[in-house]
Amino acid sequence: MKGLKIPRYKSVSTKTPLDIYNKPERVYIPTYNATVLVNKGDYVCKGSIIGKVKDNVKKLILSTVSGKVIDFEDHTIFNGNKVKCIVIENDFKETNVNNLKKQDKINEITKQEFIEILKNNGIVGLGGSGFPTYIKYNNENINTLIVNAVECEPYITADYFIIKDKCQEILEVIDAIMEINNINESIIAVSSKSLLDIINKYIGTYLKIKVVLVPSLYPMGWERNLIKELTNITYDKLPIEKYIIVNNISTIYAIYQALKLNKPLTERIVTFSGNGLKNSKNILVKIGTPVKELINYIGCDNKILIAGGPMMGENVEDLIVTPELNCVLILKNIKKEEVKNCLRCGKCVSVCPAKICPVLIKDNINNIEKLKQLNANKCINCGLCSYICPAKINVRESVRKAKEKVGK
In sequence order, which ranges of 59-139 are alpha helices (DSSP H)? Predict the structure, then answer.
């Protein structure tokens, strides 16, 4: 099953031009499990390395403003977890640590230079993973680059604005990425006719790049689903097994800024939508900005916040913008429906894109060995099991907890 047709609610946030909020008084930069390299009172520049992740994945933590380190506090990130953050008081001078010199011929950058530029500018996946992008390209054999612009979850239109406003830049950098990495072809996947028309207007002589309109289904944007739809290829663990890599289109634009301007990843577009807002909009914001400050800027009461879209999002109270946060839903209320006993109808099994059995995982939540046998770790947190459930059981939450147990 490719996916399910669900309401999109996209138009509510595309009627207003892209807004910019780049003046947070303080930013809160998550450290994850990084070694912190700064102390209270230290002055940092925009793009300064303030932490390094300890594990095998070498990931740099960068400051998104210039100013003084004033504290270390716990705050909530996109997945609902609280993490320690470095608090930086913005001096509004935008003093850059890098020399932002324009590079005209980005196609002439060497492979090693390309890897180092991505690593040093903190480029990570902006489609939800937050995974360091340079690692995907640290392979000699890449045949196909898939650019994911499907944005299949309701309400979210952050990637839409990237294509609408930066289409020429995106095509330029895709062409450069292909040349630098000796990639044979690139496929841009979209799920709306309007985006197809925008890209086709500029694609011109980029003969190795094609744009494909995929079915408007959820979760078509899931990497495994998308690769199967576009190439009819399946893989075991990672797409690179089949010489394929996938980048979200917002990540592609971040790569453009890094290659063209030596600009670190300090900002991203976030969709603000939902019935708690009079005017939904997309805002370009600095990473580390408190969402409450953005809500005050928009001019609405702080109601119920969902970090992410309605299918995969988390209900949160305190939230900061991170690279993984593409949407904040602001709701008047969440309708509580009567939960009934499981009907054993099997609908959650029939819609599961990971081909696992959500209801059996829920029933065996306290049996670790059984959860392993049921492949609870393969859940992609898409939420279709809860969406389709006629008994209104929050199946997704049970499977998410089971996945965490198996992971531990």
Answer: 111-120, 133-137
